[in-house]
Structures are given as C-alpha cells and as structure tokens.
Design brief:
The chain is α+β, with helices and mostly antiparallel strands and 528 residues long. The chain folds into four domains: 3-96, Beta Barrel (OB fold (Dihydrolipoamide Acetyltransferase, E2P)), CATH 2.40.50.100; 120-217, RNA polymerase II/Efflux pump adaptor protein, barrel-sandwich hybrid domain (OB fold (Dihydrolipoamide Acetyltransferase, E2P)); 232-300, Irregular (Dihydrolipoamide Transferase); 312-526, 2-Layer Sandwich (Chloramphenicol Acetyltransferase), CATH 3.30.559.10. Helices cover 20% and strands 32% of the residues. It contains nine helices and 31 strands. The strands form nine sheets. The chain has a six-stranded mixed beta sheet with strand order 22-31-30-29-25-28. Strand 9 and strand 10 form a beta hairpin. The N and C termini lie far apart (69 Å).
Length: 528
C-alpha cells in the first residue's frame, strides 16, 4: 500500500521547508534508512531519511520548491501502483516534466533547459534564520570578471545586517541577476558563474520563465521622496443664481444650511450647479465683495509628505513585533529603584585607572544575576512545554538607522562589569555599521531596552520573542523622596517588566523584581 510522505518538522520553529536536493528520482527503489532528500529549514539544511521502503512513485515538491510543514513531499509504494487518488490536481500539474503552451490551436512543448557543464547558478543565500529576502547593497565583481573560490562577490543586506557573500566556485562571472539596490526572495537567481564564453541564454530563458517571485527595485538607502500637492483655487462660478417663478433663490438644502450658519446672503452667491443652482462648493468658496458683512478666508498653501522605502530590517521588525504583541498576552509590572548607592558605587568604580562603567552595565549585570535565581523568568513558551534556561544570555536592544537590533551578551552572569560594558559598546558600534554577525543576535533568553539616555522616564516594550519577558529601563531623575521620615532629595529610576503571561505569572515577575532591586540598590553585592 502506498505511503504518503509529508514535509517533516525538523526544528521546533520550522513552519515550512525547502527541498535543497533530491537523492532519489521517480522510479528509484527506496529502502528504509535511505536518504531521500536534503531539506532546508529555518535553521539548517538537514538530510531527510526514509522510514519506508518500496518505489518512489511521486515527488510533490521539486528541488528549490518551498512548502509548509505537512505538505505532500513524496509517495512511496509498490511498482505500478495506482496513486491517482492520492495526488491532487495541483500535484499532478507539478509532476509534468514539460510545459505545453497552446497558441492559435498549435501545441508547443517547452522542455526545461539543462545547465551547461561547468556553469553554476548562484541563488540569493539565506544569511540569517529569519531572512526571507535580500537586497544587493554592492557588487564587488562585474560581468566578465574572473572569480576565484573565496572571493567576495557582493554585499547582501538581510533583515538584520549587511554581510559579505563569498563565492564557493571559480570561473568567470557570466550573469548578474540583481542590480545594486534590488531585492528578491531567498533562492532567487543572484548570479551565474562558468567558463568564459559559455552560452547561458537557455538557462536565462528557463529562469525567466520559471521565476514567479518578483524582483523589486529598492534604493541602496531609503530615499526621501517629497510629494508636493498644491491646493488650487476653486473654479469661479459661471452663472448667476436663478430664482423660480416665486422669486426664490434655487439652492441645495446643504448650501442653504451652510449659508445660514455663516451668515451669507444667498442672493449674493453665484451658483455653479446645474442651471446656476447654488451648491455646497459655492458656499465654501464664497468671498464677499468689499463692504460685505462676512469676511471669508480660504487658506492656500502646499501639502507635503515624505515617503521612506521599507528596508528589510524594518519589514522584519514589523512582522516579528506584530506577531509578539498579538500572540503573547502581555502584562506589565512597574517599579521605582533608589539609585543613590548605585551612583556612589559607579563613581568609586570609575576612579580605577582605565575603567569606566555605565549605569546600563550595572543594570545588565544585576538582571543576569537575578535571572540566575529566577529561571521561571529566564524562559520561553513552546506549544507543548515551557523551557526554562539555566544559562543567561541577555539581549541588549540597540537603536540603528533602520530600526532596532538586539545583540546578545552570552553568559552575562559570568562576565564582569567592564567586560559587559566593552561588549555592549562593541555591539552598538558594529550594529550601527551593520557589521554584526547573525550568531551575535541569536540565542537571547531575556532582553533589556534602555531609553534612559534619551531622557525617557518610563515606558513599556514589546517582548522580543521567544523570550518570556523584557525589561524597560528609564532615566535616573532627582526628586523629593522620604527617607527615615524626612523629605530629602533623592535619585530614582523607573523600570517596567513586560511578561508573557503564558510563561511568567504575576507573583513570579514580582519576586524577580525584588531580587533585581536588591542588586541595583546595593551594587556592591554583585562584586563580592
């Protein structure tokens, strides 16, 4: 009996897969344990093993094709077995090796073009786990140039950074599929490399015919487009107001109402409607002659807007934050910490030669130590479980020109304050230059967003999934506070913890903040 093989879920976050390569073709014998195909997931390319044996009767997704998890991937059964009932009309169409084009009652068979020997088609690479499309920021080679293995072909802008793309082939650059500033989905044709003088017209024709994903032109940097709309003067009335046989001025009910509200004498208004009927436009544009009782004012000016093209980073931020806000039930816990001891601690610490730490470094270290004691907050939600992390990787949100990135300080609790400060500064500089590596932005177990340096006293953040919580840090402010029954000048800082209620209960979040308070208000406990 035929067995249906569906697209497997090969990682916990996988939603769809791409067939990178088939090791079997229709008609081949398949034994249990044979590698059927290589499947590209959202994290890696993995070999997919067969758990059945028989003959490969049908392939549902061709090489390079992408489909959701549980989509028909293949059918294995006995030789000659009828599987027509198992294949949908769409799958049958995919099975066809040749495309038949009918024009003027004549059928033309278009056969797939074979790639000439020595020619390599280079596709848009997936350079990050969330990358869906890329933009060519810069080409380092031009058509006709020699390419050696290891040469940098181009700089590709992903949703997280701009990265150098290295060639794994050598030969001559025969074709460039995307110009600088153009964007295309992952696996679209980026370039073709082969022997000098090789005819690739057939390959290009086949690619053009099969390419269903549009290539969009995108400025190398988002351009500001000024759209100016001039408010033109209203058309002048063309006829005098008319009256019926009783001498009544003919006007629309709305025009009469507006005229009454503005104190306009309808007999002085010229109508622009049918047969001189006074309508709303005539009242709106009415300007009395000198000596009239009403002074109407019609403003004239220019309306303008600025249109900014959405970068890959901005589109991904929008997608991921929307998914977080609408899937995770957020709730917020606000606290206010006494920062007098932290200020004194920082001043004394920075008196050490060649040492300089910030208040943000103190908060990051304190958060890491508090998370170590509260793994319930250092956790994430999954469909069938809650995963609590016993290692601490704190993500620190960094504002860049196109949006926001979150580099990760790995094993934060094990690092000293100067080490944390140096790492955060390095990440911030390279983030603004788009030089961060994907692995430097992956794996966070908790995130901190600090807007205190901008003077923001209090705010809330959207959880950076898959984290279960995020901490928003405000500015330190001087204010009257009560200490030992007396009103004195104190320094305080407000923090807001946003929690995913599926992961972190209210009491759990409150206990975490109590521990965090003990470290921030007594920072000496973090270094002894």
């Amino acid at each position: 009996m035929a067995e249906i093989i569906n697209m497997p879920r090969l990682s916990d976050t996988m939603e769809e897969g791409t067939v990178a390569k088939w090791f079997k073709k229709v008609g081949d014998t398949v034994n249990e344990g044979d590698i059927l195909a290589e499947i590209e997931t959202d994290k890696a390319t993995m070999e997919f093993e067969s758990f059945n044996e028989g003959e490969l009767l049908h392939i549902g997704i061709q090489e390079g094709g992408t489909a959701p998890v549980d989509t028909l991937l293949a059918i294995i059964g006995q030789k000659g077995e009828d599987i027509s009932a198992l294949i949908s009309p769409e799958d049958k169409a995919e099975d066809q090796k040749e495309e038949v084009t009918v024009s003027n009652a004549e059928a033309t068979v278009v056969a797939p073009a074979e790639i000439p020997e020595g020619v390599e088609v280079i596709n848009m690479p997936r350079l990050s786990d969330t990358m869906e499309e890329g933009t060519v920021a810069k080409w380092n080679k031009k058509v006709g140039d020699a390419v050696n293995e290891g040469d940098i072909l181009a700089e590709i802008e992903t949703d997280k950074a701009t990265m150098e793309f290295e060639s794994f082939h050598q030969g001559t650059l025969l074709h460039i599929g995307l110009n600088e500033g153009e964007s295309a989905p992952v696996d679209s044709v980026l370039a073709i490399i082969g022997k000098k003088g090789t005819d690739i017209s057939g390959v290009l024709a086949a690619q053009e015919q099969n390419n269903s994903a549009p290539v969009t032109a995108k400025p190398a940097a988002p351009e500001k487009v000024e759209v100016v709309i001039e408010v033109k003067e209203a058309p002048k009335p063309v006829t005098a107001p008319i009256a019926n046989s009783n001498g009544r001025i003919v006007a629309s009910p709305l025009a009469k109402k507006l005229a009454s509200e503005k104190g306009i004498d309808l007999s002085r208004v010229q109508g622009s409607g049918d047969l001189g009927r006074i309508i709303k436009r005539d009242i709106d544009n009415y300007q009395p002659q000198a000596g009239g009782s009403v002074q109407a004012f019609t403003p004239r000016g220019k309306e303008s807007v600025t249109e900014l093209a959405n970068s890959q980073m901005r589109k991904t931020i929008a997608k991921r934050l929307s998914a977080s806000k609408f899937s995770a039930p957020h709730y917020y816990l606000g606290v206010e910490f006494d920062m007098d001891h932290a200020i004194a601690f920082r001043t004394q610490y920075n008196s050490i030669p060649d040492t300089k730490i910030s208040f943000n470094d103190i908060v990051v270290k304190a958060v890491a130590l508090a998370l170590k004691q509260h793994p319930q907050v250092n956790a994430k939600w999954e469909d069938h479980q809650i995963t609590q992390h016993h290692h601490v990787h704190v993500g620190v949100a960094v504002a860049v020109e196109d949006g926001l990135v979150v580099p990760v300080v790995k094993f934060t609790d094990e690092q000293s304050l100067p080490q944390i400060g140096a790492a955060v500064k390095d990440y911030a500089v390279r983030a603004r230059d788009k030089k961060l590596k994907p692995e430097e932005m992956d794996g966070s177990t908790f995130t901190i967003s600090n807007l205190g340096m901008f003077g923001i006293q209090e705010f809330t953040s959207i959880i950076n999934q898959p984290n279960g919580a995020i901490l928003s840090v405000g500015a330190i402010v001087q204010k009257p506070v009560v200490k030992e029954g007396a009103i004195v000048v104190g320094n305080t800082m407000k923090l807001t913890l946003a929690c995913d209620h599926r992961v972190v209960d209210g009491a759990t979040g409150a206990q975490f903040l109590q521990t965090l308070r003990s470290f921030v208000e007594n920072p000496l406990t973090m270094v002894i």
